[in-house]
Amino acid sequence: MSTTHEEITLAAQEEIPVVDLRKLIDANLYMPFPFQRNPHASEAAAGVEEWLSTWGLTDEPAVAAMISYTRPAELAAYNSPTMDSGLLQIMANQIAYQFIFDDRAEDVGRHTPGRLLPMLCESIAILRDGQAPTTPLGAALADLHRQVQERCTPAQAARWAWSSREYVHGLLYEAVAQTHPGSVGSGLCRSIRSLIAGVEPFYPLCEAAQPCELTPEEIHHPVIRRLSRLSADAAVWIPDLFSAVKEQRAGGVINLALAYQRTHRCSLPVAVTLATRHINSTIREFEELYGELRPELSPSGVGYVEGMAGWIRGCYSWSRTVPRYADTMAAPAVL
């Protein structure tokens, strides 16, 4: 994350005409993928509400309110506009679960990190060993795992479980970082952010939406793996731009824009502008690599990568309007 003094000065100059941070992001973010929305969004939203209620995850009023202003089914609908209603429901359920799990893990990890271990170990035991859950969160995860296994091929379900375990392990890294925020530089922040992004567990669902399972040669192709990393990073860094105000007020550390701010000791609008440039270069690399590889891909391979691109586009569309990040619209672009 090398940024020159001249680039910081230019970013500061560029932010002046923009009224609020959302407009600043809109003015600077490169988004080549057009807006789309799945027609089954309302059905998925109702399904999420019923599923969370079944497992008691919205019994707490604060959790129910969080889901209401986070709109997980809307995020799923923006990310996967052509996915069938069954797969979309699994995706929406998983997004809702991860928001609840992530928020709880962050709260527990920030105040009493030791209490985070049983929570994470239960998840790993369910995903890796098929052990029976002991908590409502664990029961929901076990049911989600069942849904994935029933809809996906064994290889796809195994990839889902492996990526989900990596996400769970990443939350422990985040908890450690939160206890010593001053020691978390920009590079370390990005490494931890890639672990806790929680985007790559959804890619096996993107594969399951295709006519055929990808061959091992295609799924493990070096360029496909690079595209997976680029898309996951871009997809999670975009919400970082919109959540920077919320995270700053809550004392958050693992956020791309806040990492730029700490590194360069600049205002938040300048940090957001610099982070946006980094995201733009990531999206452009994804676009270029995909363009080069596309002629070699099977139709299912093309659909799989389109699913990755959908997460970039969808996270942007969702972040712009979701109430969870409403503070961004009220934050001035000049500080």
UniProtKB/TrEMBL annotation:
This is Sesquiterpene cyclase. It comes from Streptomyces azureus. Signal peptide: none annotated. It comes from the Bacteria. Pfam families: Terpene_syn_C_2 (PF19086). Gene3D superfamilies: Farnesyl Diphosphate Synthase. InterPro entries: Amorph_synthase, Isoprenoid_synthase_dom_sf.
